[in-house]
Design goal:
Layout (H helix, E strand, L loop, with lengths): L7 E6 L12 H17 L4 E6 L1 H4 L4 H6 L4 E5 L8 H10 L3 E7 L1 H14 L3 E10 L3 H14 L2 E3 L1 H9 L5 H14 L8
Parallel strand pairs: 1-2, 1-4, 2-3, 4-5, 5-6
Length: 191
């Protein structure tokens, strides 16, 4: 199934300032979430962020928030964000069925949220370069488990070009200039 911007939502799970210093690939995950989040906003794709226990783990990474012109922030107590009744109801009401998912820790909150979304009938797209854990091996295992459960592993480039669909309009030219071209040579590690 191809991603469509009008059916998509970007969900960034728990990229929190107090947690990121111990996360393998945390800076890359923030950069990739910033990049795709900015592009999502340009294409009217909603961007939602979650925070788990912000009193202890800090709020969302300030660099991420500063880079996003528009987002909705959810605080949660469940590791699975979809287990939060208000979150689940708002997601259902949004009508968005394709969820591009990333964040930390990949093997805990990101994976449990993804599994909850799959169980509820959503299409889940696992953003491989921005789903990270303290140990890279656990992020890789989480991706494998999510793929076996029905999620589709993707990269930010895949998502961007599927959302854009075509290259012959002014919207593409502007996004290419601002987002795609500057990112093209950036080295990335995929989990």
């Amino acid at each position: 199934m191809r991603l469509k911007s009008e059916n998509s939502l970007l969900l960034i799970v728990d990229l929190q300032a107090g947690l990121l210093p111990v996360i393998d690939g945390g800076n890359q995950a923030v950069s990739e979430a910033q990049w795709l989040g900015g592009l999502a906003c340009e294409l009217d794709v909603p961007v939602w962020l979650t925070e788990q226990y912000p009193e202890g783990l800090g709020g969302s990474e300030p660099r991420l928030l500063e880079a996003l012109p528009d987002y909705r922030l959810w605080q949660k107590v469940h590791f699975n964000a979809h287990a939060e009744p208000d979150f689940a109801a708002a997601l259902e009401k949004s009508g968005r069925r394709q969820i591009v998912l990333c964040g930390s820790e990949a093997h805990i909150c990101v994976m449990q949220t993804g599994l909850g979304l799959l169980e509820a009938g959503y299409e889940v797209y696992w953003l491989s370069e921005a789903s990270v854990s303290r140990r890279a091996e656990e992020a890789c295992l989480a991706r494998e488990r999510m793929t076996q459960a029905g999620a589709t592993p993707v990269t930010a480039d895949m998502v961007a070009y599927e959302w854009l669909e075509r290259c012959d309009d002014e919207r593409f030219r502007q996004i290419h200039r601002r987002f795609l071209k500057p990112r093209a040579s950036r080295p990335l590690r995929f989990y």
